[in-house]
Design goal:
single chain; alpha/beta; Rossmann fold; Dimethylsulfoxide Reductase, domain 2
C-alpha cells in the first residue's frame, strides 16, 4: 500500500494575495532605514542581546563569515559593523530562537504545511532534531541519529549502481564539509555531484575557463578602489550584494566612473548612503552610477559589439584606444574579431539593445581613454541560452583594452551563496578532473570514478526517469531553486529516499521521495564544540581568498550535528568502519580534513596556518598574466553570435528577479521597498505602454504562460505593476516564476537555466471578491 501511496502536497503553496501596498520606488539605498530594518529583523528573531553578540562578530577576523553572499571582507574590517542589511537578515534567520521538533510535525502534516507560502514555512524556526517521513505517512517522526545513518546506508547498499544516488551541494557549506561530502560520493562510486553553481554561475566558469584559463574572477576587493571604470552588468548589488556598494563608493570618491547595464535601474546604483560613516548616514549619500544603460533583456552581446565597433573606429584614428602591445603579447584572435565586427550594422545593433544612442556614445567616450576597467556581473548575464557567450563578449572588451592581469582591472563574477566558489575549489563537481583524481588516489588511497556524473539538469532528468533513486542535499531548497518546479517535484517524488541536511524548514522537506529524512545541522554563527575544543571552518570568498570562520552563539539544540561530523558518521556507517579513509576521525578533527584539502585540492597550502586573520589567496593565473594552459599560450578573443529569441507579436521577454526581502530562495519578508512594493510577492513589473497596448491597468490580475516544445507552463495570479522597464520586457520574483522555466532549455555548454530570458504570454483573469 505504501508503495502506491502518493502524498497530496502543493508544490507552490498558497497563491492568494496578501494585501499589496504600492509606493514610489526609493532613490536612496541603505542609510538609516537600512540600519533600522537590519536591527528590527534581528531583535524580532533573536532578541537584543543575541543580535548584538552576533552582529558585532560577523565578518570579523575573530568571528564568523556572513551566511549570506560571497562578497569579500576588507583587509581591515570595520570594528563596529562589517555587514549589510541582508547579512543581518540572514543572521537573524539562521540564529532565530524559534524552534520546531517532532511534536510540531505530529500536529502538522506535510500536506497541510505544503499549502503555506515559502515565507510562512521559513518562519517556523530552527529544526532541532533528526526526523523521518516514512513510506505511506504524512507526518515526520523523531529518529535517532544512528538510525538515520543506518537507513541511508541501507538504501545506498541496495542500489544497483552508485550512479543511482545523487549528492547535491548548496553553496553555504564550508570547505571542510564540501570536501568530505565530495570525497564520500567518490568513495561510494559516483561523480553525481550537482551543486547550486550549476544554476547560477556555471556560465561564468565555462566562459572564463575558455577565454582566460580559470573559472574565477581576476580582481581583488582593493582593485575596486582605484579603478577608472567599473561596469556593473546584469546585477543588482543594492539588494543582492549590498556591501559591494561601499567599494563602488570608494571608486567614485577616487574619481572612477560607474556604468550600470540592466533592464531595471536599481536603487542601489542610484544613490547610496553608507551606514558605516557619519556623512553617509546624515548627508546626501553618493550618486553611484554615472551612466545607466536600460538594455533589453539579454541584448548584452549587441551592446558590447556596438561599443567595440565604435571604439574600433576611434582606434583607427588614434591607436591608443585599444592596448595593442597587450593584444599582441597576450591575446589570440584580435584580427578575426575586428573582421567579424565589420559584418554588423550599427543601426541593427542599436535597435536590438533598446538603449538611447546618446547614452551609448557617452559609454564609448568614458571607455575610450581608460584602461583600468573592471566588469562585474551576476545572473543577468549567466541565465540565458547564450549565457557563456554573454560573458565571453564582455571579456573581449577587457582584452582589447588591456584591462586584464593588472591592478584595478579585470573580471568580477559576483557569486551568490557565501561559499559556492569554495565548494568547487575543494572538489564539488560533476565532471572529471584527472589530476584531481590522481591526487585523491595518492593521498586518500582509493580510486575515484572516472565517468562524468550529472549536473543539476541531469539530476532532475535522472530522478524523473527513475534512473536515480536516492537524492541527498547538503543544504539548500532544491525544489524552489531548480527550474521547472512541477517537473522537479515529480522527479523528487519518484525517488525512494530524499535526504535534506538543513537548518530551517523549506518546501523540499514537504515534496519528497517515498521516504524522507531531515538532518538538522548547526548554523554558521553557532559554536561547534567537540571534546571541550571549539572547532572552526574555512570559506573562500568571491575573489578567491580563504579565511577562517568560528561561530560564537549557543547552538539551537544539543541534538543537531555539524555538517562535517554528519558526513563522516554517514561514511563510517556505510563502510562499516572498514575503509582506507578514517572517516570518523575526520569528523572529529577538522585539522585532519584541512591537511587532506592541502594535499588534494589545487592551490591550498598550509590552510590551518594561512587562513588566520585576513587569510590567503588561492593561485590565479590571470593575475600573473599566465595563459599557458590555453591555445597558443594566450588569452582567447572570441567570436560570439547575436541572441535569437524569435519573439512572436504577443510574446514578452520575462526575467526572474529577487525582492529586497529575500536571499535566493529564502524569503525574509514580503516587502520590496526599493521598488515600492509592500506585503506582496505575486507581482509582474511591466512597461506602462505595454499595459495600454493590451488594455490592461495597474493591479489587473494575469496568468503568465510559457510555451516551449508545445508544452505550456503557467504561473497563476500575478498583479501587474507599471514600472520603468523597456517595452517588451517583464520582471517577476523567483521562485514563484520558476514554474515557467523549462528544464530542457539552458545555456549552451554550461546548462544554466534560462531564468532571465523566458518567452511568455499574458492572460487576464477576473478575481471574484
Amino acid at each position: 500500500m505504501a508503495e502506491n501511496f502518493k502524498r497530496k502536497v502543493s508544490i507552490t503553496g498558497t497563491q492568494e494575495f496578501t494585501g499589496i501596498e504600492l509606493k514610489e520606488p526609493m532613490r536612496i539605498a541603505a542609510g538609516v532605514l537600512g540600519v533600522k530594518e537590519a536591527l528590527r529583523h534581528g531583535f524580532k528573531e533573536m532578541g537584543i542581546l543575541r543580535s548584538m553578540q552576533g552582529l558585532l562578530k560577523m565578518n570579523q577576523k575573530d568571528g564568523f563569515d556572513c551566511p549570506s553572499c560571497a562578497w569579500p571582507d576588507p583587509e581591515k574590517p570595520s570594528k563596529i559593523a562589517e555587514y549589510c542589511e541582508n547579512g543581518a537578515k540572514a543572521l537573524a534567520d539562521e540564529a532565530t530562537t524559534s524552534k520546531i521538533n517532532a511534536d510540531f510535525f505530529a500536529k502538522h502534516s506535510v500536506e497541510e504545511l505544503s499549502l503555506l507560502s515559502d515565507y510562512e514555512l521559513n518562519h517556523f524556526g530552527r529544526l532541532v532534531e533528526p526526523l523521518v517521513l516514512k513510506p505511506g505517512k504524512v507526518h515526520y517522526e523523531r529518529i535517532a541519529w544512528q538510525e538515520a545513518f543506518d537507513l541511508i546506508s541501507e538504501e545506498l547498499h541496495q542500489l544497483d549502481s552508485p550512479d543511482e544516488a545523487i549528492f547535491y551541494t548548496s553553496g553555504r557549506s564550508s570547505n571542510e564539509a564540501a570536501f568530505l561530502y565530495g570525497m564520500f560520493a567518490r568513495a561510494y562510486g559516483t561523480n553525481n555531484m550537482p551543486d547550486c553553481s550549476n544554476m547560477c554561475h556555471e556560465s561564468s566558469g565555462v566562459a572564463l575557463g575558455e577565454t582566460l584559463g580559470i573559472g574565477k574572477g581576476s580582481v581583488k576587493l582593493e582593485d575596486f578602489y582605484n579603478a577608472e571604470v567599473i561596469i556593473v552588468a546584469g546585477q543588482n548589488p543594492g539588494t543582492n550584494h549590498p556591501r559591494m556598494l561601499s567599494a563602488l563608493e570608494k571608486c567614485k570618491k577616487n574619481g572612477g566612473k560607474i556604468i550600470s547595464i540592466n533592464p531595471l535601474e536599481e536603487t542601489g546604483l542610484v544613490n547610496f548612503k553608507n551606514p558605516q560613516s557619519v556623512s553617509g548616514m546624515l548627508g546626501g549619500g553618493e550618486n553611484l552610477a554615472d551612466l545607466h544603460l536600460a538594455i533589453n533583456i539579454n541584448q548584452d552581446i549587441p551592446l558590447v559589439k556596438l561599443l567595440l565597433k565604435k571604439l574600433a573606429e576611434l582606434d583607427a584614428i588614434d591607436k591608443s584606444v585599444f592596448d595593442h602591445d597587450f593584444i599582441e603579447t597576450h591575446t589570440d584572435g584580435y584580427k578575426k574579431l575586428i573582421a567579424d565586427l565589420d559584418k554588423y550594422d550599427v543601426d541593427e545593433l542599436f535597435h536590438l539593445t533598446g538603449v538611447n544612442l546618446e547614452r551609448i556614445e557617452e559609454a564609448v567616450s568614458i571607455l575610450a581613454k581608460k584602461s583600468k576597467i573592471i566588469i562585474c556581473w551576476a545572473m543577468g548575464l549567466t541565465q540565458h541560452k547564450n549565457g557563456v557567450e554573454n560573458i565571453r563578449e564582455y571579456v573581449n572588451l577587457l582584452l582589447l583594452k588591456g584591462a586584464i592581469g593588472k591592478p584595478n582591472a579585470g573580471t568580477c563574477p559576483v557569486r551568490g551563496h557565501s561559499n559556492v566558489q569554495g565548494d568547487r575549489s575543494v572538489g564539488i563537481m560533476h565532471f572529471v578532473d584527472e589530476k584531481l583524481n590522481k591526487r585523491i588516489e595518492k593521498h586518500l588511497g582509493f580510486k575515484p570514478p572516472a565517468e562524468e556524473g550529472v549536473d543539476t539538469v541531469g539530476a532532475m532528468q535522472a530522478m524523473h526517469e527513475g534512473k536515480a533513486k536516492v537524492f541527498m542535499c547538503l543544504g539548500g531548497n532544491f525544489l524552489m531553486a531548480a527550474s521547472d518546479t512541477k517537473y522537479t517535484a515529480e522527479a523528487l517524488q519518484r525517488c525512494h529516499l530524499t535526504v535534506q541536511v538543513s537548518t530551517k524548514l523549506n518546501r523540499t522537506h514537504l515534496v519528497t521521495g517515498k521516504m524522507a529524512l531531515i538532518l538538522p545541522t548547526i548554523g554558521r554563527s553557532e559554536k561547534d564544540v567537540k571534546n571541550g575544543q571549539q572547532r572552526y571552518f574555512t570559506f573562500e570568498n568571491s575573489m578567491g581568498r580563504v579565511t577562517q570562520s568560528k561561530g560564537i552563539l549557543k547552538p539551537a539544540s544539543e541534538n543537531i550535528m555539524s555538517e562535517p561530523e554528519l558526513i563522516a558518521q554517514l561514511a563510517h556507517t556505510y563502510f562499516k568502519g572498514n575503509h582506507v579513509v578514517d572517516w570518523k576521525a575526520l569528523g572529529e578533527d577538522y585539522e585532519l580534513i584541512r591537511e587532506y584539502i592541502d594535499k588534494v585540492a589545487k592551490g591550498f597550502e598550509k590552510t590551518t596556518e594561512r587562513s588566520k586573520g585576513s587569510g590567503y589567496y588561492l593561485p590565479n593565473n590571470v593575475r600573473e598574466l599566465d595563459f599557458s594552459n590555453l591555445p597558443n599560450g594566450k588569452a582567447q578573443i572570441t567570436i560570439n553570435k547575436l541572441p535569437d529569441h524569435d519573439l512572436k507579436q504577443n510574446e514578452f521577454m520575462l526575467m526572474t528577479i529577487r525582492s529586497h526581502d529575500q536571499f535566493n530562495t529564502t524569503i525574509y519578508g514580503l516587502n520590496d521597498r526599493y521598488r515600492g512594493v509592500y506585503n506582496e510577492r505575486r507581482v509582474l513589473f511591466m512597461n506602462a505602454e505595454d499595459l495600454r497596448s493590451l488594455h490592461l491597468k495597474k493591479l489587473d490580475v494575469v496568468n503568465i504562460h510559457s510555451n516551449y516544445n508545445s508544452q505550456i507552463r503557467t504561473a497563476k495570479k500575478f498583479l501587474i505593476i507599471p514600472y520603468p522597464i523597456p517595452k517588451g520586457n517583464l520582471a517577476a520574483y523567483f521562485p514563484e516564476t520558476n514554474v515557467l522555466v523549462p528544464y530542457n532549455h539552458f545555456a549552451e555548454r554550461s546548462k544554466t537555466p534560462i531564468s532571465k530570458s523566458i518567452k511568455v504570454t499574458l492572460e487576464k483573469v477576473s478575481i471574484k471578491s
